[in-house]
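Private note to self, pasted from the team thread so I don't lose it. Backbone tokens:
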């Protein structure tokens, strides 16, 4: 398992001229309080036992639109003048910022246009539209959507709502840090996903200026180190919400001095973290929101940190992707197996085969017969998708089939 790290070593210098102050964050909290509730923070028994440390989860996915983005977007919108609100706003987003802006514009009566990349998850496109926003799909990556939205803002004189690179957005995001400090004063470490950097910048400011000693770890996807979308066949990131190549200017200034370490975790581990949240917490967390848990799965947080807070900052995952991740996990955990056997193409062969599988108490989910291209003339190849209990049960099924000289092959 490969581990990527950035900026090793301690970062002890505290920023005194940061673009966002603790006072800004406290003011943002007062401003948004009538509109948003405090999200819960809870102890995870399952994850704590699994990773041999006290693991707490900050459930920022519990806000109305399913992500932390509401605080920053709302703080920005509430700071607009009446005239600016009448002009309307526009934003560029791969999803969660779009949902936050669309929802609160609806609540505040502000006309809203959202520009999203064509690769944005369908659930986020549909929900933004359902909230009353005019949704335009432009570009394959967020950068192209961003440029179009800014041009739209200039032409139509709409206020552009940044997703992360603005002091009001960072201050709003930092309210999460204040809530964590109230609910769990003695945590020693916190792991925050990084896309554009607004969330971690706000939380870092809240913690550092409050003189809290916790180590702040940021986590990015290794996808951001790759070439990105270079062709129609380029892989799409599971953690689409943090698939941002460059951190914003305002957040970067804060991250430089306030964040202790930035970690890079592979997409396949983030995918596994999504299903681990399902198994351990019975909760759907999207890829970007699962990145903090992925660092524990990759053993990236040093063992001396015994009281760790994870940000579960979003739940807006496409159901088709979620279904694929669940099935992928079932194969990995030995709950599903796909196997192929070759049997003589004559009456009774399938009956004997299925009886053997039945005697092993495996459940047949799918079958596929291949006659024309069987590797052995006179035989038929049969592929089964079986539901099994675990890896030990899988071995028992294979041994039973092998005892009949069927030579099962996993495919």
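Design output:
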């Amino acid at each position: 398992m490969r581990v990527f790290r950035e900026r090793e070593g301690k970062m002890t210098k505290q920023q005194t001229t940061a673009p966002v102050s603790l006072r800004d964050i406290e003011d943002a909290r007062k401003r948004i309080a009538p509109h948003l509730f405090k999200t819960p923070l809870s102890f995870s028994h399952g994850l704590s036992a699994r990773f041999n440390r006290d693991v707490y989860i900050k459930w920022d996915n519990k806000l109305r639109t399913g992500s932390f983005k509401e605080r920053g977007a709302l703080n920005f919108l509430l700071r607009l003048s009446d005239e600016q609100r009448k002009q309307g706003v526009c934003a560029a987003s791969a999803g969660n910022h779009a949902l936050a802006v669309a929802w609160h514009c609806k609540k505040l009566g502000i006309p809203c246009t959202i520009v999203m990349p064509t690769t944005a998850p369908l659930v986020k496109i549909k929900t933004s539209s359902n909230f009353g926003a005019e949704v335009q799909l432009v570009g394959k990556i967020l950068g192209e959507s961003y440029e179009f939205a800014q041009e739209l803002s200039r032409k139509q004189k709409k206020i552009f709502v940044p997703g992360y690179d603005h002091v009001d957005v960072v201050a709003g995001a930092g309210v999460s840090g204040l809530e964590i400090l109230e609910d769990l004063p003695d945590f020693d470490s916190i792991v925050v996903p990084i896309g554009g950097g607004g969330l971690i910048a706000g939380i870092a400011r809240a913690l550092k200026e409050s003189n809290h000693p916790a180590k702040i770890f940021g986590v990015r996807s290794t996808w951001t180190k790759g070439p990105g979308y270079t062709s129609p066949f380029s892989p799409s990131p599971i953690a689409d919400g943090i698939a941002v190549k460059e951190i914003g200017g305002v957040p970067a200034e804060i991250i430089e001095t306030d964040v202790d370490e930035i970690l890079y975790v592979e997409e396949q581990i983030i995918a596994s973290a999504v299903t681990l949240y399902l198994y351990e917490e019975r909760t759907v967390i999207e890829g970007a929101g699962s990145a903090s848990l992925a660092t524990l799965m990759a053993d990236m947080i040093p063992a001396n940190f015994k009281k760790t807070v994870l940000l579960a900052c979003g739940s807006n995952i496409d159901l088709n992707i979620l279904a694929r991740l669940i099935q992928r996990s079932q194969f990995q955990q030995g709950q599903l197996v796909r196997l192929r056997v070759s049997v003589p193409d004559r009456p009774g062969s399938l009956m004997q085969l299925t009886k053997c599988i039945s005697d092993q108490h495996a459940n047949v989910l799918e079958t596929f017969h291949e006659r024309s291209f069987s590797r052995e003339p006179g035989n038929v190849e049969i592929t089964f998708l079986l539901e099994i209990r675990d890896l030990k049960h899988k071995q028992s099924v294979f041994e039973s089939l092998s005892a009949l000289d069927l030579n099962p092959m996993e495919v």
